[in-house]
Design goal:
Bound molecules: zinc ion
CATH class of the domain at 146-259: Mainly Beta
Number of helices: 5
CATH topology of the domain at 146-259: Glucose Permease (Domain IIA)
Helix content: 10-25%
Largest sheet: 8 strands, antiparallel
Structural class: alpha+beta
Length: about 260
């Protein structure tokens, strides 16, 4: 599917959902015929899509009992679930729309290149980042600036090619760092190159990690809710300057965080 038709598709889906809640999530799908002996996690790996997305897309009740010969809908991660389109209605304000969709209005302004939030035109489509599927939120409340991407890169300090297991977000020392999602603190302390590090365990085998902190404000075992301040960003460990290193792991393996949170 080309990008344009995807947008139209997402827009139509958003329209369908809009009258109910104002929140819509749409995805593109591929089909997969379940082969004998195949497991959901094998299928998920094959398409490089989290198992949870497949479960949701097919309303599967038990992940252990999938039927051979059944057609599965496989959500296409690359373009799915990234954003929805919202059509501006009479009386809407950018802040109102942002609040209802649990996003920062400044993010909406930037993403949609809105020169003045007061000049919203009825009927205009607004792109809204949608991270509602897994429920992760950005760990910072400042405008997000990605200073280093996830993936292989020459290490900024040693120069050796290494996997960068998370993303780096620009943050002055002392910037509040928030739990990306509710969960239980499983690590709070120093760890090698990470410096002062916090790790949180979430439902469905996800963990999030926050590195190079200057202060840690939580303890191991503590239950934190989403948006709880877990520490202050810093420059501890192996780091070339103040920033937050943020990881999302699924079953212990790092995932591309931008699959789960939107960075404009
Ligand atoms: Zn990093």
């Amino acid at each position: 599917m080309k990008r344009r038709s995807i947008h139209i598709f997402i827009f139509l889906a958003a329209l369908l959902v809009e009258p109910l809640s104002g929140i819509g999530v749409a995805a593109g799908f591929q089909q997969h015929l379940i082969q004998k002996g195949e497991t959901l996690s094998e299928i998920a790996q094959k398409y490089e899509v989290p198992v949870k997305l497949i479960i949701q897309a097919n309303s599967i009740k038990s992940a252990h009992r999938i039927q051979t010969g059944k057609m599965l809908r496989i959500p296409s991660e690359t373009f799915a679930l990234k954003e929805i389109l919202y059509q501006v209605r009479p009386g809407d304000t950018l802040i109102g729309i942002a609040n209802r969709h649990n996003v920062d209005w400044k993010d909406l302004q930037r993403l949609n290149r809105i020169s003045s939030p007061r000049s919203l035109q009825i009927g205009t489509e607004i792109r809204i980042p949608s991270d509602a599927v897994f429920g992760f939120r950005a760990p910072l409340r400042i405008p997000l600036v990605l200073t280093s991407k996830y993936g292989y890169r020459p290490h900024p300090v040693t120069g050796r090619w290494r996997m960068h297991e998370g993303i780096d977000l620009r943050a002055a020392v002392g910037t509040r760092v928030y739990a990306s999602k509710g969960g239980r603190v499983i690590f709070a302390g120093r760890k090698g190159g990470y410096g002062k590090l916090v790790g949180i365990e979430h439902e469905d085998n996800f963990t999030t990690w926050y590195g190079h902190l200057s202060r840690i404000r939580v303890k191991v075992g503590q239950i934190v809710s989403q948006g709880k301040v877990i520490g202050l960003s810093g420059n501890t460990g192996i780091s070339t300057g103040p920033h937050l290193h943020f990881e999302i792991r699924y079953k212990g393996r790092s995932e591309k965080p931008t699959k789960y949170i939107t960075i404009p």
